[in-house]
Design brief:
alpha/beta, Beta-carbonic Anhydrase, Chain A, 2 domains, 10 helices, 6 strands, globular, carbonate dehydratase activity, EC 4.2.1.1, lyase
């Protein structure tokens, strides 16, 4: 905790002053251009990997960077409500769903009942990926590495498809008023792959830029 307090002091005394004008411009309103939906994993830092500053990203993080299909419910729908807000109130222009290598959330999909006995809400959350688990298990079988990257990438594609169930998003996409992107971040190399809708595959982001 001492390190966190020292970090906060450094921010107030040094970093904030360096960007004081920017924070002054943000004091009454935010106007982010991008909704970034990522995993809660501590190794994934949205502003770091996108080289963005305060006010640019509206960030949603959860276990496994999962986007559920749209629904209106009586329970508390944190991810769904945040997407609703970003699209309808902030009028964001881009949505990035970012997964990553060695995702603990995706790995937990294959955990035993005993491993998840003290995490009933995590277990319930991961049932959203049950169809992916069935498909991957038929192909990867006992190959844990293959199972991991297949699950992580199929989860991203599935999340893109689920985004289209949110009112207005598919229409905005067809009108080119919004862009949808799925990124796969490899922690140990820093490489980012983007899903190519035409080839239905992930390619290095610099190759994606060359094609656009």
């Amino acid at each position: 905790m001492k390190n966190l307090i020292e970090g906060a002091l450094k921010f107030m005394q040094e970093d904030f002053k360096e960007h004081a004008e920017l924070f002054e411009s943000l004091k009454n309103k935010q106007n982010p251009h991008t909704l970034f939906i990522g995993c809660a994993d501590s190794r994934v830092i949205p502003n770091l990997i996108t080289n963005t500053g305060p006010g640019e990203l509206f960030v949603i993080r959860n276990i496994g960077n999962i986007i559920p299909p749209y629904r209106v419910g009586d329970d508390f729908l944190a991810t769904t409500s945040a997407i609703e807000y970003a699209f309808n109130s902030l009028h964001i222009k881009n949505i990035i769903v970012c997964g990553h290598s060695n995702c603990g959330g995706c790995a937990a999909l294959y955990a035993s009942e005993n491993d998840l006995k003290n995490m009933p809400n995590v277990k319930k959350w991961l049932t959203l990926l049950e169809p992916i688990k069935i498909k991957v298990s038929q192909v990867a079988k006992d190959d844990i590495a293959m199972r991991a990257w297949m699950t992580e990438k199929m989860n991203l594609v599935n999340s893109l498809q689920n985004l289209l169930t949110y009112p207005g998003i598919e229409e905005a996409l067809n009108k080119k008023e919004i862009e949808l992107h799925a990124w796969y971040y490899i922690i140990e190399t820093g490489e980012i792959y983007e899903y190519d809708f035409n080839f239905e595959n992930f390619i290095l982001i610099q190759e994606r830029i060359k094609k656009s």
